[in-house]
Amino acid sequence: MNNLIPLFVAIPLAGCFLISLVGKKSRWTGDILSNLCTLSLLILALLSVGIAKAHGVAVYKVGGWMPPWGICLVLDQLASFMLVIVNLVAFLVNVYSIAYMERYTAKDKFYTLFLLMIAGMNGVIISGDLFNVFVFVEIASIASYALVAFGTEQEELEAAFKYMVMGSVATILILVGIAFLYSHASTLNMADMARALSEKSNPGIILFVSVLFLAGFGLKAALVPFHWWLPDAHPSAPAPISALLSGLLIKALGIYALIRVFFCIVGSSQVLPALMVLGTISMLVGAFLAMGQWDFKRLLAYSSISQVGYIVLGVGLGTPLGILGGLFHLFNHSMFKSLLFLNSGAVDYATGTRDLQKMGGLRERMPVTANTSLVASMSIAGIPPFNGFWSKLVIIVACVQAGHPVYALWAVLASILTLAYFLKVQKYVFFGELKEKLRNIKEVPFAMQFSMVVLAVICCLSGLLLIPQISDFFLGSAADVVLNGKEYAQIVFDSLK
Asked: Is 430 helix (H, G, I), strand (E, B) or coil?
């Protein structure tokens, strides 16, 4: 079973290598190879849930070298939870791209970079070595810089440059933090580092490293005040990449890395209050900024900042219910925000504009896009019975239960603001009178519809993840790993015996 773990990196790397070699032979080669790779990864991710549940932790020793001297890949319930999210959305976005990317040249180069980014995200999730987390963060980031600039227009190139500069600052902060931890613990293996820090912890170094990681991974997660790159980068990228950036990348490279580092290695007690404050500020600032936007994708980008705040607030509470709610909202946001960016791509594909004021009445001509967008809008606004309601409710109840009713109040206010600006989206894009110049548009191709419908169904049904029998197998198991982060080192080394 352990031998399946490296396939999460090997398959997309092999796919991008093959596509770069033979992608130009036929217009369908890239489509077929890329979709086969992402479908294989999705199947493996689903299998990994059962493996992690059955074995607790599975460790793959790269080259047969025993940790901590050798590099290892670690699969636990939190990693399998993230792998399912990443590879499910990646597969659906890949299917969507079959038709959408026909508008661009060099489709084979798009798939090459796409799979490289997936390899980087999967690598971050399964890496058991802190320096390799940095390496995989860089792989995913470099691919994402190129994909943001894929259209090669002035807007795309400017946004990609800003994104690259801010991303480079983040990786420098992360690398310096890793260097300080290595100088103190004399190891880069995450489990061994956690054990070393528990035996000879230096509060000054831990605090300094915590600030570096909070700023570095906070930049990757687009937490306020580290969010300035996101409103330019996400709207400029092609719609499938916008969906990956907002739905996956900021979570795998930002939030997941923060959780893994602080709960499993460094210790979370010093940063939890900061996470709660930053999460609340992000919720409110992102919501207020989204209110004034008329560019469809830019509105969604600011909304991502707001929704990331909910996740960080839940995790920052540090309570069982708060962590459960934070991870649940991470899953839900990956689904409905990916769907919303795919909806915006479908609207742009059909109408040629992202300006809300130039649209109207599209429900009449694009019923699938309109209905799936309505589901996603109600989900992100927290309207029952859609998935966003349940995760926001858990976070709000967790705030009250932990003795922080003011934070709960801010969370409710941010949700009301979210409902307000998504009602604006529905009014100006899909309802009202159909404009004369839009009377000849038609619904997008089937591949794009398929991905949107599947994500909409998930938004309707994923509230079932709170059912105890399902939660214990998937969501609850991931939350338990975070709660028991102090035992990470012992569990990993026990699995090697």
From this structure: helix
pLDDT tens-place string over residues 40-91: 999 999 999 988 888 788 888 887 788 778 888 999 999 999 999 999 999 9
Cis peptide before 468 (omega within 30 of 0): no
Indicate whether 130 pLDDT > 80.
Answer: yes
Could you tell me if residue 177 is inside a domain?
Answer: no
Q: Is 384 left (phi over 0), alpha (psi -120 to 50) or beta?
A: beta
Q: Show the domain range for 310.
A: 273-466
* Strand-pair category, 58-61 with 72-75: antiparallel
pLDDT above 90 for 21: no
283 lies in a domain?
A: yes
- Give the pair of three-digit tokens for residue 212: 């570096």
Tell me the one-letter amino acid at 230: L
Query: Which of 200, 196, 210, 194 shows the shortest CA–CA distance to 270?
Result: 210
Domain-embedded: residue 293: yes
How does pLDDT run across 305-319, given as a tens digit for each residue?
Answer: 999 999 999 999 989
* Distance set, CA 290 to CA 63, 164, 238, 348 (Å): 49, 23, 20, 19
250: in domain: no
Residues whose CB falls within 8 Å of the CB of residue 146, separated by 6 or more in sequence, listed in order? 113, 160
* Tokens 């210790």 belong to residue: 267
Q: How far is CA 415 from the centre of its chain?
A: 20
The DSSP annotation for 316-385 comes to HH-SHHHHHHHHHHHHHHHHHHHHHHHHHHHHHHHHS--BGGG---GGGT-HHHHHHHHHHHHHHHT-TT
pLDDT band at 435 (very low <50, low <70, confident <90, very high): confident
If 0-12 CB within 10 Å is exposed, 13-18 middle and 19+ buried, where does residue 56 land? Answer: middle
Global model pTM greater than 0.90 = yes
